[in-house]
């Protein structure tokens, strides 16, 4: 049986429940790699000039071209090797989310060729949220325009008057309360 003083159960000699321990919190793949590497620097990409804007901004030297070509050749997977999509394994996406995220991701891809990936992601978030707000505003305006309260509905707390109840058709709320009910006015 494990003792509570072991490092996995204790922090500075105090007991820490599992949900508050740092090693049990969800972290991204890059954070996990950064923790495991033991270096003070974040993980480095091995791809020379990964973004198109870096390759186009200045002319590539022959050494850069050779390194880039070699890296591209190394990325080709042989026919027998299994292909694994890393991002789909880490974070699978719902089919409906994939559907409504597609325009934003295409917009992000368009912006990535012009600006940095960080700016492209922020533009995607801004544009998609503004579009969602616009659609919500249109729905709200439509609802206010076509569902306004009139006099009869305001008396009845928003309910529509029923044709089977004759006393709801009166103009005021007091007039139908003061009348005596007969069989035609009873609830069905």
How many H/I helical runs? 8
- Helix/strand/pairing class, anyone? mainly alpha
How much helical structure, as a percent, in the residues?
A: 40-55%
Succession of helices and strands: EEHHHHHHHH
Strand order of the largest sheet: 1-2
Uncertain runs? 1-10
Our estimate of the beta-strand percent is under 5%
Mean pLDDT: 71
C-alpha geometry: elongated
Biggest sheet features: 2 strands, antiparallel
Work out the oligomeric state of the chains in this entry.
Answer: single chain
Explain what this protein looks like in three dimensions.
With 188 residues, the chain is mainly alpha-helical. Among the domains are: 15-78, no CATH class; 151-179, no CATH class. It has eight helices and two strands, in the order ββαααααααα. The chain has helices at residues 29-37, 52-57, 62-75, 86-90, 95-112, 117-146, 151-155, 173-178, and strands at 10-11, 14-15. The protein has a two-stranded antiparallel sheet with strand order 1-2. A hairpin with a 2-residue loop joins strand 1 and strand 2. The longest helix is centred in the last third of the chain and has 30 residues, at 117-146. It starts with 9 loop residues before the first strand and ends in a 10-residue tail after the last helix.
